[in-house]
């Protein structure tokens, strides 16, 4: 996770502690401007209570939040990386060609409303209970995917099972995400940065595990002598790879459950949670401190709805840019990219598909890391918007590769080099990570976003609006993948 560009001013230091979307960078030194303004003795006492946690939080707490960050994005990465296995179970069915688009759409459409509900109800909920039950549910749902590798229902039943399971994981993950971010915000920038680092790293780790398991399953399948009588009952490489992959994911979620339970016993956690509880001396002060624990700020002068609508218009270039980045990404990755096969017949399709996920995630991670280099930062909203729109060019580039459609095209692939395809995919990931991160950092920055006019009270609202635009882009991209496929195959994308 790239480190945030630090400054000396307190206003710039507070760059939006609240980040409902996992892949956005965090301010280096989160400061609560609403508490800075008041100099009353009671308010100063509360500010002292919210001072940085003991040194213990910089060590064990930081690594615990890194693990929790990994768990937040593990469901999505696990489901999307296991696409080759899902497709192998739909072989010979008309559902196969549209599966990836339906999977992305089901996952993202489920995520958006539940994330909104989780954020709206975070103030009244127990974060520790949300983390506990969310991890438990995710472990169970992932375990059912593991069991599915030994069960062979009809393609239609399997199709419905995967979409329903994925939608449930997305919904549960929304509550896990808000709870983890809320707890991390109590510990300040160190824990929050650890969460973001875990979310960025899990994609690379999951893809790496998938490549290794795919390689192992392909090798074991090639070592088994061909026995025609037993061929029908033998497990495929895709099933073996998926069983290992989902099994490891289930174990990791259970370990995360134990790690979180251990964190709750640490003195640093108990002390900080006690300090974060709102005082009953005045209603306004109680709302103020509880708002810090949930990442929701309140403005007595303007309603929340009016503030959000104002920020949507005020930061329109940033909001549109970050949404469009993910709309383009999800429109082709993985629905189109997973159908691109190697031009080398000796390369196993399962291994090539798994490796292409790894390349993209490495690129995405590198793009976020670039944001730690001050000379390479772009704060201009217009420039980021142009870069976001320019990513549209990746769509025809991918379509020029060795795409395997149900109806073969009259012209063969223009890009016949696997290396060139992987380079395009790498830059696709780099641009996704860099532009999205810069939009999320710049939109709530009072130092670099002149639209805010130095109003620190607008920072958290700007971050929240940009975050929901990011999720909206993911949802729009999932739906747009159907249109991209229809334009290429000249067919009904919902059926073929």
UniProtKB/TrEMBL annotation:
Subcellular location as annotated: Membrane
Provide the Gene Ontology terms for cellular component: fungal-type vacuole membrane; plasma membrane
Regions crossing the membrane: 63-87, 99-119, 131-151, 157-188, 242-269, 318-340, 346-363, 384-407, 419-447, 459-484
Question: What's in the keyword line of the UniProt record?
Answer: Membrane, Transmembrane, Transmembrane helix, Transport
Tree of life domain: Eukaryota
By its UniProt entry, which InterPro entries does this protein fall under?
Answer: Eqnu_transpt
The text of the family note is: Belongs to the SLC29A/ENT transporter (TC 2.A.57) family.
From the Swiss-Prot or TrEMBL record, give the protein name. Nucleoside transporter
